[in-house]
């Protein structure tokens, strides 16, 4: 079985389903850690609707979808912050397919997309509890650095030169 990655409209049914899975997982993980509970249905609906990610379209960004054996398996987004800096967004691989290299495939494809959009640097943010994500980014050459945004849920910031 192999991974393929291609641009995907952020509002396609497959992208929307993966966005829901991603948001549910990170929201539940946050609330279980901080509040001892999963995210309530109304909170999930609000969060999912608030971040439709329509800006992940060219020329200012791009959503990439990974497929494994032809089935939608994960996403990564690229959002241009300025003429030379791209932000990595929404890196996600469905749980049953983790550990098969999809995260690295998605990040490398996002870097290629960012370069094609003119980026010389990629930045991202994550949380302390997303240890798997932090390990992936470090393994792929991202270094922790100063904040590049004021996202209330961001706790760690990383960057990598794309040249």
TrEMBL record:
UniProt keywords, alphabetically: Acyltransferase, Transferase
Keyword check for Transferase: yes
Superkingdom: Bacteria
GO molecular-function terms, A-Z: acyltransferase activity, transferring groups other than amino-acyl groups
Pfam families: Acetyltransf_1
InterPro entries referenced in this protein's UniProt entry, alphabetically: Acyl_CoA_acyltransferase, Bact_Acetyltransf, GNAT_dom
Residues in N-acetyltransferase domain copies: 16-163
Record flagged with keyword Phosphoprotein: no
Protein name: Acetyltransferase
Species of provenance: Streptomyces zinciresistens K42
């Amino acid at each position: 079985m192999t991974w393929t990655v291609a641009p995907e409209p952020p509002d396609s049914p497959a992208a929307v389903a993966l966005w829901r899975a991603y948001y549910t997982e990170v929201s539940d993980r946050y609330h279980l850690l901080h509040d001892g509970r999963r995210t309530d249905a109304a909170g999930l609906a609000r969060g999912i609707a608030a971040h439709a990610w329509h800006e992940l379209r060219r020329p200012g960004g791009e959503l990439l979808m990974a497929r494994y054996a032809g089935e939608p398996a994960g996403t990564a987004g690229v959002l241009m912050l300025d003429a030379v800096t791209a932000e990595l967004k929404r890196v996600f691989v469905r749980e049953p397919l983790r550990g098969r290299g999809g995260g690295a495939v998605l990040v490398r494809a996002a870097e290629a997309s960012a370069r094609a959009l003119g980026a010389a640097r990629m930045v991202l943010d994550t949380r302390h509890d997303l240890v798997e994500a932090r390990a992936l980014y470090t393994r792929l050459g991202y270094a922790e650095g100063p904040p590049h945004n004021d996202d209330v849920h961001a706790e760690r910031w990383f960057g990598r030169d794309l040249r």
